[in-house]
Amino acid sequence: MALRTPPAAPAGKLTLLNPGPGLVVLEPQRAALLLELDALFTDMADELGASPVVGPPLLPAEGLARLDYFRNFPHLGVTAARFPDGAVEALASGGPVAEQPVRPTGYLLPSATCYGLLLSLQSQDVGPGLRLTSIGRCFRNEDHYDGLRRLWGFHMREIVYFGTAEGAREHLARSKELLETLAGRLGIELSYQPASDPFYDKSGSRAKLMALDPVKYEFVASDGTAIASVNRHRNFFGERLGITSAGAVAHSSCTAFGVERWIHAMLQAHGTPQKALRQVHDVRS
Questions:
Q1: Domains plus CATH for the chain?
Q2: Which keywords fit this entry according to its UniProt record (predicted)?
Q3: What is the pLDDT of residues 50-69, one digit of tens each?
């Protein structure tokens, strides 16, 4: 794949303003950095044998409920709603948006890329093993927002494995090895530690199980930002969705990259988007 040369910055003193809290506009240099970093993650997916797919922009609430999403993360969900007819007429007449009622659609914006892939495989047999990769816009209702580290909406690249228990473990081990090698070549120092997922009920059974037997580990940059993770699902999703592998309940695991957080880590390590891009180009050349 040919390396992209970022276009010159707009002439004059044009400043791209962030539309609101938790929202960012990436100017040309950081936008190029996002594309180049995701190309590296896609190269890793290719090395792991993952087929690229495009996930859905919305997820059915009913499907997420089957995966215990609302028992674990109800506070993170961002719903998709529509204006009823009366509100549409009021808006068309210049009425205030904030005062108009909305009607639920039964859909949510994704908070992770893998949910759409999981739901797409329900009641199917994946044979001896299947790897898929996708990048999606993900959305989370956080209690605060912080630059590129914590956003309303962000890009998440995932590489997901479905198959045997041994295959799921091998996927995570190989992903960890490749990810640590990539970070080293990019000049990012990472630590590897158990995740502390933002469960709604910190005393609940799922949170307690995570503390006793961590199934998610994060790769954390020097300033404490978690920029990637590896996740062992066991056979949970296989059981809930009827996914099988060669006739048995499928196990699954995934590797996830928060792309804007990688931009943040690269800027922390190299100082400017230009220097960060040069480092990425050196790795890809």
A1: 28-59+110-284 (3.30.930.10)
A2: Aminoacyl-tRNA synthetase, ATP-binding, Ligase, Nucleotide-binding, Protein biosynthesis
A3: 999 999 999 999 999 999 99
